[in-house]
Amino acid sequence: MSSLQRRKYDAQFKIEAVRLVLNGRPIKQVASDLGINANVLARWRREYHQDNEQAFPGKGHLKPEDQELHQIKKQLRDITEERDILKKALAIFSKQSK
């Protein structure tokens, strides 16, 4: 039994492939020349139009906007946890002082 492995392309390859299409070459021709599916190249083009050079961050990397959102969410979790701890401590100390 042979399992199909998904081919992986780096961001530079994807950007160059999209640039070929943007320079006027047909998607089917570029896809055929590069040995990829035309639907994949069309998706890459859509992603490139949405985010330009930051369209393909790669595995484990985030776009700058997503990175900032991730950091803000982490800060919010930390601050919420600290607040909850302080509330519990206040409740414990207020019971002891009575």
Question: Which topology of the largest domain does CATH recognise?
Answer: Arc Repressor Mutant, subunit A
The tally of structural domains comes to: 2
Mean pLDDT: 84
Helix and strand pattern: HHHH
Uncertain spans, ≥5 residues at pLDDT below 50? none
Put simply, the count of helices is 4
CATH architecture level-2 label of the largest domain: Orthogonal Bundle
Total beta strands? 0
Class by SSE composition:
mainly alpha
| Strand percentage | under 5%
Rounded to the nearest angstrom, the distance between the terminal CA atoms is 74 Å
CATH class group of the largest domain: Mainly Alpha
Rg measurement, Å: 24 Å
Question: What keyword list fits this structure?
Answer:
single chain; 98 residues; mainly alpha; Arc Repressor Mutant, subunit A; 2 domains; 4 helices; 68% helix; rod-shaped
Describe it for me?
The protein is mainly alpha-helical. The chain folds into two domains: 8-60, Arc Repressor Mutant, subunit A; 62-98. The protein is 68% helix and 0% strand. α1 crosses α3 (38-51). The model has no long low-confidence stretch (mean pLDDT 84).
Give a concise summary.
With 98 residues, the protein is mainly alpha-helical. It is built from four helices and no strands. It is 68% helix and 0% strand.
